[in-house]
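TICKET: design request
STATUS: open
ATTACHED STRUCTURE:
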């Protein structure tokens, strides 16, 4: 059941949008308008949230029951009341009993869960903050197994998957538009129409607040007419997530820092790129098997080839993380002399020996020595200073930034004559390649650029 959550009074000629079964009216925020609800008889639910639970109603239990009964008399199908609220005269068959937790404290989770299971009501609603997707609790499986229909929502960053794939008995709460979401990760009704069917994909990493992947992947799917949803999957402990039932809901993943090595342990097969780089940024599901690929390498290789840089031009890679290694291997694949530059010379030397390229300590690096420089650290994304000074770069140098923004110091300080490519260039190419690996569909690069900006 798709429920449209409204936090303001709908217009008097309001009708439910396509795909919506029920309207939730927060009558603690706006009083009931009888003219509006009259044509919605049997198609709306009244929620009267008390101030002790984040709402604005400050009356007694008797006053609250009186208001909710009036809503039922005016044609509400359901009333949503907290599990603690003592039912007196309200019909149990029309009561949705809810718990909205503000914490993941194990003791409070257990106590709240037992309170919800034991209270009378026709439907049970359980909302719990989930900062990391692997932070699931066994109690929820028991709630789903109970005979009473249930609604389970994971709020906060790690719960976005539960909005695209509702657990329990498939009730989903949707927003009217992107400006009126009542919870983090909530879909709009229009997004739900496009994303609710088809395969589920996600991006694994931590943190993910900066990630453009959900926006871009969902936009590409929409342009190509593909079903499916792409969501954020912030993980602190990937190994724990791989053991959950939620992991099995997905058909593929994009992987970003710091988990590009960790995810390899769950794979049944990896590409030559993943073997050589010991880094995987794409997981593809084929039946019960998981296959790993590295599209960062493919993206950097294509960028270098597109700019037709002379093979005599040496390339400096700043950083030896997953993306840095992918960039180094891409440069070598294009026939360039590559130098891995890292704060820890030992790490740079380790990977340089493995790849057959040069190594350099960061303290010995000078931007004026290299006509091509690829910045592969996440330093500025973490509000740390740029690891190198590009003020004295060679004229017409090719500078490639792995971070999305053009305003990074790496690009900003470089001479105006330099060719400056921010991380969106790499991101677009590697994301389009991921879409092809998952779906078999190719997104033309010009349309991909449109998807990035529209």
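STATUS: resolved
RESOLUTION: sequence designed for all positions
ATTACHED SEQUENCE:
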């Amino acid at each position: 059941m798709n429920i449209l959550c409204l936090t303001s009074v709908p217009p008097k000629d309001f009708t439910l949008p396509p795909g919506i079964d029920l309207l939730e009216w927060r009558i603690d925020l706006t009083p009931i308008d009888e003219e509006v609800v009259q044509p919605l008889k049997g198609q709306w639910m009244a929620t009267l949230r008390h101030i002790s639970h984040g709402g604005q109603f400050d009356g007694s239990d008797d006053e609250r029951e009186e208001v909710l009964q009036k809503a039922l008399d005016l044609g509400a199908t359901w009333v949503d009341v907290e599990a603690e609220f003592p039912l007196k005269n309200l019909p149990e068959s029309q009561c949705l009993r809810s718990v909205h937790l503000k914490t993941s404290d194990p003791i409070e989770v257990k106590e709240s869960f037992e309170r919800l299971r034991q209270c009378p009501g026709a439907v049970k609603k359980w909302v719990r903050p989930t900062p990391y997707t692997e932070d699931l609790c066994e109690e929820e499986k028991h709630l789903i197994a109970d005979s009473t229909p249930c609604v389970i929502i994971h709020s906060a960053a790690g719960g976005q998957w539960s909005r695209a794939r509702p657990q329990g008995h498939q009730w989903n709460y949707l927003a009217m538009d992107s400006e009126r979401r009542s919870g983090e990760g909530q879909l709009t009704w229009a997004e739900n129409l496009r994303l609710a069917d088809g395969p589920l994909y996600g991006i694994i990493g931590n943190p993910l607040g900066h990630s453009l992947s959900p926006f871009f992947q969902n936009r590409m799917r929409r342009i190509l007419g593909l079903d499916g949803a792409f969501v954020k999957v912030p993980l602190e402990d990937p190994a724990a997530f791989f053991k959950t039932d939620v992991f099995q809901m997905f058909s593929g993943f994009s992987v970003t820092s710091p988990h590009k090595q960790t995810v390899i342990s769950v794979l049944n097969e990896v590409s030559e790129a993943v073997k050589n780089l010991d880094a995987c940024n794409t997981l593809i599901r084929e039946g019960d098997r998981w296959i790993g690929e590295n599209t960062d390498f493919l993206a950097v290789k294509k960028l270098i080839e597109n700019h037709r840089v002379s093979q005599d031009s040496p390339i400096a890679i700043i950083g030896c993380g997953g993306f840095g290694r992918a960039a180094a291997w891409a440069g070598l694949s294009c026939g360039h002399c590559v130098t891995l530059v890292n704060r820890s010379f030992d790490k740079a030397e380790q990977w340089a020996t493995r790849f057959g390229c040069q190594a350099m300590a960061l303290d010995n690096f000078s931007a004026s020595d290299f006509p091509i420089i690829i910045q592969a650290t996440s330093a500025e994304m973490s509000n740390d200073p740029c690891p190198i000074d590009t003020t004295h770069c060679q004229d017409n140098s090719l500078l490639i930034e792995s971070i999305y923004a053009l305003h990074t110091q790496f690009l900003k300080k470089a001479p105006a004559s330099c060719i400056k490519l921010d991380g969106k260039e790499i991101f677009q190419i590697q994301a389009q390649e991921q879409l092809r690996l998952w779906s078999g569909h190719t997104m033309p690069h010009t349309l991909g650029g449109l998807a990035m900006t529209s």
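CLOSING REMARK: The domain at 204-293+428-453 is CATH 3.40.50.10860 (Rossmann fold). The chain has three domains: 2-196, 204-293+428-453, 305-421.
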